[in-house]
């Protein structure tokens, strides 16, 4: 662990050297201007590294108000640095293109004004990104077509919520907005695909009272994500059971619609195994499946889809990716996640990846939004 900390800190230090060099080397700043920029950057980077090392120790994970503020502040600084580094890299790429491919295309990229703009633009991004969070969850309607959909399930509406990350950095008013929106929509079924609670449950009685108001005629189903396992998972899962959610740990719930049956299955996140909890067990799920049912499976991780489709599942619902959450990760996510967001077809199964209803880390989204998905089951018209 000592090695990882050293490597991570050295990596951040290297980024600091690169960014401060690129922001000051070619400008016509006086030595005072150059020193001021370097001191500002050194302070911001030191805050991020310091907070990272401080929270590394598990005993520092408990939430006291001043710690929450420190974490919040340094996450915002981290987001600022993220935008700044992205802009510095983009500028270098443009300068490379200008020098070697298309000369005199972009003007003076390294003027003092350009450098000031690069220091200021991340602040604009922070404000815009935060505004996206303030707007709250946005509804996305997704009709999904199936050849084998029983006619009793035609038009069934499943409201899909994921990656809410209830924690001190998510304001209770966000949860209140989400609950009000959900109640207005009157869905037939509500599903939660993990990373809903990302903190000690005792701290969030208020939010759980709000979630307890949710109702759906055919039930509310829930599977844990990786983040639930970081904070006393058994207590957390019990809190969801206590408010009437069906917590599905390799379990299948049968929902009858006249002669048709919808089987709602759920598997936990593989992170469970690191905490000596029950991990995903697809063989156990398969034993509970019946032949003619319509099968929906909840899995926090979309990456399990290749295995899940071998069970004869019709629809997998997932989250986890946050769609990259903010620039430039909303672009780069495709290099890390095969199924980043939206609808996919894998064999005979369809997979929907919701980009996350809440957010994680800094309070912002840029290039993505807080998604509340209404999945509508539709019969695929016959093609001759
Ligand atoms: Fe998440």
Explain how this protein is built.
The protein has 384 residues and is of the alpha/beta class. It has two domains: 129 residues, no CATH class; 244 residues, Purple Acid Phosphatase, chain A, domain 2 (4-Layer Sandwich). The protein is 40% helix and 17% strand. The chain is built from ten helices and twelve strands. A six-stranded mixed sheet has the order 1-12-2-3-4-5, covered by helices on one side. Strands 6-7-8-9-11-10 form a six-stranded mixed sheet. A hairpin with a 2-residue loop joins β10 and β11. The mean pLDDT is 91. Bound molecules: fe (ii) ion (FE2).
Provide the succession of SSEs: HHHHEEHEHEHEEEHEHEHEEE
Could you say what the CATH topology of the largest domain is called?
A: Purple Acid Phosphatase, chain A, domain 2
Number of helices: 10
Classified in CATH, the superfamily of the largest domain is: Metallo-dependent phosphatases
Distinct small-molecule ligands in the complex: fe (ii) ion
* Arithmetic mean of pLDDT: 91
- Overall structural class, as computed from helix and strand content, comes to alpha/beta
Helicity range of the residues? Answer: 40-55%
Distance between the termini: 61 Å
What percentage of the residues does DSSP assign to strands (E)? 15-25%
Low-confidence stretches: none
Count of folded domains = 2
Placed side by side, the strands forming the largest sheet appear as: 1-12-2-3-4-5
CATH architecture of the largest domain: 4-Layer Sandwich
CATH class of the largest domain: Alpha Beta
DSSP, total strands: 12
Largest sheet descriptor: 6 strands, mixed
Calculate Rg over CA atoms: 24 Å
Shape: elongated
InterPro entries: Calcineurin-like_PHP (IPR004843), Metallo-depent_PP-like (IPR029052), Metallophosphoesterase_sf (IPR051158)
GO molecular function: metal ion binding; UDP-2,3-diacylglucosamine hydrolase activity
Protein name: Phosphohydrolase
Organism: Bdellovibrio bacteriovorus
């Amino acid at each position: 662990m000592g090695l990882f900390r050293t490597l991570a800190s050295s990596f951040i230090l290297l980024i600091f050297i690169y960014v401060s060099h690129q922001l000051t080397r070619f400008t016509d700043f006086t030595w005072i201007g150059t020193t001021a920029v370097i001191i500002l950057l050194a302070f911001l980077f030191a805050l991020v590294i310091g907070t990272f090392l401080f929270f590394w120790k598990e005993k520092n994970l408990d939430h006291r108000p001043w710690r929450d503020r420190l974490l919040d502040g340094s996450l915002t600084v981290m987001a600022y640095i993220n935008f700044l580094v992205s802009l510095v890299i983009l500028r270098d790429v443009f300068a490379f293109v200008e020098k070697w491919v298309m000369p005199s295309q972009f003007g003076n990229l390294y003027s003092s004004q350009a450098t000031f703009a690069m220091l200021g633009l991340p602040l604009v991004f922070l404000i815009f990104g935060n505004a996206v969070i303030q707007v709250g969850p946005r509804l996305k309607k997704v009709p999904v077509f199936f050849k084998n959909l029983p006619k009793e399930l035609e038009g069934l509406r499943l409201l899909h919520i994921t990656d809410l990350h209830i924690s001190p950095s998510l304001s209770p008013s966000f949860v209140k907005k989400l609950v009000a929106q959900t109640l207005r929509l009157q869905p037939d079924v509500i599903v939660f695909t993990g990373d809903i609670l990302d903190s000690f449950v005792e701290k969030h009685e208020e939010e759980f009272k709000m979630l307890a108001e949710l109702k759906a005629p055919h039930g509310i189903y829930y599977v844990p994500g990786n983040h639930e396992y970081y904070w006393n998972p058994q207590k957390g899962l019990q809190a969801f059971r206590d408010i009437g959610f069906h917590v599905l740990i390799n379990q299948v719930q049968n929902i009858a619609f006249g002669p048709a049956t919808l089987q709602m299955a759920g598997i936990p996140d593989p992170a469970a195994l690191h905490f000596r909890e029950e991990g995903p067990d697809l063989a156990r799920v398969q034993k509970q499946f019946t032949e003619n049912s319509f099968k929906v499976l909840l899995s926090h991780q979309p990456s399990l889809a290749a295995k899940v489709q071998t069970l004869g599942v019709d629809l997998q619902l997932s989250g986890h990716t946050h769609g990259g959450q903010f620039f430039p990760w909303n672009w780069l996510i495709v290099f890390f996640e095969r199924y980043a967001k939206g609808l996919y077809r894998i064999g005979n199964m369809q997979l929907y990846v919701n980009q996350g209803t809440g957010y994680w880390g800094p309070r912002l989204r840029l290039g993505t939004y807080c998604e509340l998905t209404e999945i509508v089951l539709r019969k695929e018209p016959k093609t001759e």
